[in-house]
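Researcher: Good morning. I'm working through a list of sequences from a screen, and I'd like to move beyond sequence-only analysis. For each chain I'm collecting a predicted structure so we can compare shapes side by side. This is the next one on the list. No need for commentary yet; just the structure.
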Amino acid sequence: MYNNDKVSMEGERVMSLNRDNKADKREVTSIRNDYVRSVEMEGQRKKAHRVRLLRRLTVFGLLVLMATIWVGSTIYAQTQTISEKEQLREEALIKLEEVEKQQDQLEEQILLLNDEEYLAKLARKDYFLSDEGEIIFTTPHDEKKDEEKPSEKE
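Model: Good morning. Structure tokens for this chain:
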């Protein structure tokens, strides 16, 4: 009988709501007994619970969104920094190779400058110095041949 009362009360409430929506809008007084009040309070509690739940979920969702954005921006910034450092590293390696080549050439030149025969040949060529009894003749030469000679040595 309790279930039937509940169903009939809810049916009356629905019917009263339907009647309120009609154009004539008649006033119907609702029954105010303990059961009706408890049902209304339960409905209000459920509604309040749903509102609190939605608020909590919204706050949690915003926190997750903010954390995701922060992590994403951090990863992006670190990726940019890593790529810049890799580019600097590649440039430094290229410069290191050039410096090592230059160092090898300078070490080779040091060895040649320690050789007496090479020094004498260099002095004759660049400074037109000669040994005793030696005569130096300078001949005109083409610039194209001078440019080709260094490339042949390499």
